[in-house]
Design brief:
By secondary structure, this protein is α/β, with parallel strands linked by helices. It contains 8 helices and 8 strands.
């Protein structure tokens, strides 16, 4: 498949990723007509596993556009991942620091050049134990304030959570194949606006409405494909500042268990070699 308006590395790697996606899952994409054929645009989506960028990137490419990706600065420290991110000219965002606002300048440059950007308004993987969208970051609302005419295209997806465990990043080989259904749905552009000089309260309110919209789109997808997760929505959205971070807790627990298994194997090997 030809990748339009893309840099050479993306033209090279995109067909490989698309072939891989078609092998490991049954991907269904609807609503591509909502993505503008030209001009700047921002596609937003819920974020459950790191593989989300692969399936959403494929969907945007099938609409006739070449997406620009955004990644946290920590991913640029991983050698293999950093090579790919630099190859596709991914925009580096420094999360959780005072420099996060300045990181939006790279996204603004892409929009000014007429490009399309893929964003996750949660600012990273959801930490909600049931994988519902968590409390969002205000970065998207800040972009809406400086670029009010850029359409915001919402997208909900569900299904690839069975391929890559969102808690310990383990690949679930038994769910690999065309029997695993992943649905990607694009909706019409959001009808939201932000003032030119918004305060934090306005930014937070708009961000909440954006996450509400994504969650509303996600409900029917989860009802049709429960994947062992409840489809019951919570009374309020998960907020790591109030509810903690179960993802990190679970990750640390799994890392401790893996280390314990390694230690047991080493002790057994020492006993064998000591005989």
């Amino acid at each position: 498949m030809k990748v339009p308006e893309a840099q050479p590395f993306l033209r090279f790697i995109a067909p490989i990723i698309i072939k891989l996606n078609n092998v490991v899952q049954n991907l269904t994409i609807t609503g591509l007509h909502h993505i503008p054929h030209d001009g700047p645009a921002i596609v937003i989506a819920n974020h459950t596993v790191h593989a989300d960028s692969l399936i959403l990137g494929e969907a945007i490419i099938k609409s006739g556009r070449a997406p620009h990706f955004v990644a946290g600065s920590d991913f640029f420290a991983v050698p293999g991942v950093a090579f790919i991110l630099r190859g596709v000219n991914a925009i580096k965002v420094t999360r959780g620091t005072s420099a996060a606002k300045d990181s939006l300048d790279g996204i603004r440059d892409i929009l000014d050049a007429g490009g399309i950007v893929l964003l996750f308004p949660e600012g990273g993987l959801t930490h909600d134990p049931q994988l519902w969208p968590m409390r969002g970051k205000t970065g998207l609302a800040r972009l809406m304030a400086t670029h009010p005419d850029v359409p915001i295209i919402p997208c909900a997806h569900w299904g690839n959570e069975r391929l890559l465990n969102p808690w310990n990043y383990a690949i679930d080989w038994k769910h690999m194949g065309r029997h695993t259904r992943t649905h990607v749905v694009f909706g019409p552009a959001l009808n939201l606006s932000v003032s030119e000089d918004p305060d934090y309260a306005e930014l937070t309110a708009v961000t909440g409405k954006i996450i509400d919209h994504l969650e509303h789109m996600l409900v029917p997808l989860r009802q049709a494909n429960p994947l062992d997760f409840t489809v019951q929505q919570r009374e309020r959205r998960w907020d790591c500042r109030l509810d903690g971070d179960p993802m990190n807790d679970d990750y640390e627990l799994n890392r401790a268990l893996r280390q314990a298994r390694k230690n047991r194997r080493r002790r057994r090997w020492r006993k064998i070699t000591a005989r």
